[in-house]
Amino acid sequence: MSNTTIKAMTVGPFQENTFFLKRGDSDEVIVIDPGDEAARLIDRIDGDHWKPVAIVNTHAHLDHIGAVQAIKERYDIPFYLHPDDEPLLEAGPEQARMFGLPPSPVPAVDHSLRDGVSLDLAGFTIKVMLAPGHSPGSVVLHVEDHLIAGDVLFQGSIGRTDLPGGDYEVMMNTLRSVILPLPDETHVHPGHGSGTTIGVERRSNPFLIPLSGS
Description:
Layout: E1 4-11, E2 16-23, E3 28-32, H1 38-47, E4 51-56, H2 62-65, H3 68-75, E5 79-81, H4 86-90, H5 92-98, E6 111-112, E7 118-121, E8 124-130, E9 139-143, E10 146-150, E11 153-154, E12 157-158, H6 168-179, E13 187-190, E14 196-197, H7 198-204, H8 209-212
Parallel strand pairs: 3-4, 4-5, 5-6, 10-13
Antiparallel strand pairs: 1-2, 2-3, 7-8, 8-9, 9-10, 11-12, 13-14
């Protein structure tokens, strides 16, 4: 039986899900998409006596990057991002101003994510799958029977494609070629909202139903 533990905290005005990935018998944790409210996230990490080993981001929109620098500095850990989203990362302060929010420091990327590469972190082997459409360098993270989906797939919906770097046709191809081939029992952990499974979305998501037979 898997002892994978994925804990979520919902942070910031966009109600973004930050995830902590760890083995049940280990204090090492991977921080995924620390989007905002760094103090709350740090309180959780320290309160549970976790030892962060890395920050891995699915993409670099404003609501997913706001706490990266603070956590990176606090624990002296590396930051992973796909290079195609680095322009979005650099534009983080501009994104914040567009929404009338205070800008966050722009963190340096320590390691580039690549499609098909596996990350060996905190006792996990995490497969990185490039999944563009919401942003050029969006990735999903596949570990065992879990998919950390960023803003690619939600319960009953998909990520927006009208933001900078978004492309609807590219998103449809991602859903067809990356998401739908996954097993029905795969647990999906989206960047916003509640969790779901690939099987549920294959049968009920209005964006996926037309693609399922293609």
